[in-house]
Amino acid sequence: xxxxxxxxxxxxxxxxxxxAEQVLMGHHEAVLRGYGLTMTQYTxxxxxxxxxxxxxxxxxxxxGVTQQSMASxxxxxxxxxxxxxxxxxxxxxxxxxxxxxxGRTQLDGAYAExxxxxRALTAAFTxxxxxxxxxxxxxxxxxxxxxxxxxxxxxxx
Length: 157
What we know:
single chain
């Protein structure tokens, strides 16, 4: 059995990252709940606003979820009138999702609230600190991705 260090778990870098992520997600979920959106739905709406029409597979990649999960998310979003889906002009079996006016309105309202936190975080650092933090987080993300085991039958990203 490996020796377990006696330092407090609160001092572990992974635990600090996890706590920051939990607080961030808690904030976003509270804001999005007021618009009847989940984090995945919000992310999908952002992607559609940025890219225009997208397939379920493209949206799944953009949101970091499986295609099966995205299919369920899209069905819910369609039933809420946030998106509309039409057959792809290239592939008859592929549905292309686009924002509806209602989807755009919900996204705009949620974004206006979410961006307040983004601006507050940015303002908490000097420009140099902000650039350093972004670089450090990117480096940490690379290490985390490299250290994550790939399930059998799946290729790494």
